[in-house]
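user: Here is a favour to ask of a fellow structure person. I have my own habits and do not want them to colour yours. Could you put it straight underneath, so I can go through it closely?

assistant:
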Amino acid sequence: MSETLSRHWKSLVGRGVVAILFGIVVLVWPAITVGALVLLFGTYAIVEGVLALSAATSSDAPHRGWLVFGGLAGIAAGIVTFVWPGITALGLAVVIATWFMVTGVAEIAAAIGAPSGTAGRGLLGLTGVASVAFGIYFAVYPGSGALALVWTMGLFAIAGGIALIVAGFRFRSGVKELSEPVERVLVAAGYGS
């Protein structure tokens, strides 16, 4: 079981690292064009979706469906950005808003399904709430401008990435100290078997 749990905490940390790298690239290159933003976002969404699906397919958890749902949403959002590369900032905001909300709901559901008081549960839920909040923001204010979109995406990706990394390392430390509670939260969130 320790090997399985170890594999799953690394998945969370990996997703966090990808999110932070994406956020840094977006913030360091603020004059990014819509076309480059589409490619960056599409790549990020597909990688994040594949990592979520990987965690879901290596688990027998009853709540792994939420990971599958979130992973497929990420891959779909990435594919949409590559199929329509000429997408406008407004159209990209709609795609991003939808992806943030779907991913956030999946993360919240996984956190709610986990037993209370276990390591990483709160951070996973907080990441989901932040995703939904940013999704609503982009849905309500889709024309807020490409630069604001870039900065908001970059900051959110870094904050969400940090939360995922912290949650991953908390899961890792829980494996050594609280194997049964950690196992329950991983199973409920789709990261364990």
